[in-house]
């Protein structure tokens, strides 16, 4: 279980509509950017047409080192999940 803020750092896509890849990274539903849910940092920048812009991938990854997705502490007790 994990909790991160809801908006992608790229174009503010709703990450609640994203998916998890085989490595456990949260994948943005709009442009395929990937986030490490344990740190909130982007591990792969925007894909598709945005991936062809020189330096864009690196600049977004650098941005999320400075401003990662916010993370919450998730606890589960008696079948109930809470986020702090």
Secondary structural class: alpha+beta
Shape: elongated
Number of strands: 8
* Oligomeric state of this protein: single chain
Order of helices and strands: EEEEEHEEE
**Low-pLDDT ranges:** none
- The amount of helix comes to 10-25%
User: How large a portion of the residues is in β-strands, by DSSP E?
Assistant: 25-35%
| Main sheet: strand order | 2-3-4-5
Major sheet details: 4 strands, antiparallel
Query: What is the radius of gyration computed over CA atoms, rounded to a whole number of angstroms?
Result: 13 Å
Average pLDDT rating: 91
Helices, by number, come to 1
Cα separation of the termini? 13 Å
Keywords:
84 residues, single chain, two-stranded antiparallel ribbon, 13% helix, 8 strands, 4-stranded antiparallel sheet, alpha+beta
Q: What would you note in describing this structure?
A:
- With 84 residues, the protein is an alpha+beta fold.
- The protein has 1 helix and 8 strands.
- The chain has one helix at 56-66; strands at residues 3-4, 19-20, 26-27, 34-35, 42-44, 71-72, 74-77, 80-83.
- A 4-stranded antiparallel β-sheet has the order 2-3-4-5. Strands 1-6 form a two-stranded antiparallel sheet. It has a two-stranded antiparallel sheet with strand order 7-8.
- A hairpin with a 2-residue loop joins β7 and β8.
- The longest helix is centred in the last third of the chain and has 11 residues, at 56-66.
- The two termini are 13 Å apart.
- The relative contact order is 0.21.
Concise account of the structure shown:
The protein is α+β, with helices and mostly antiparallel strands and 84 residues long.
């Amino acid at each position: 279980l994990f909790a991160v803020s809801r908006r992608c750092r790229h174009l503010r896509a709703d990450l609640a509509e994203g998916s998890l890849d085989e490595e456990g990274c949260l994948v943005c539903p709009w442009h395929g950017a990937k986030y490490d849910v344990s740190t909130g940092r982007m591990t792969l920048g925007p894909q598709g047409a945005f991936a062809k812009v020189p330096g864009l991938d690196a600049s977004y990854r650098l941005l999320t080192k400075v401003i990662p997705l916010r993370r919450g502490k998730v606890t589960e007790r008696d079948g109930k999940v809470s986020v702090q």
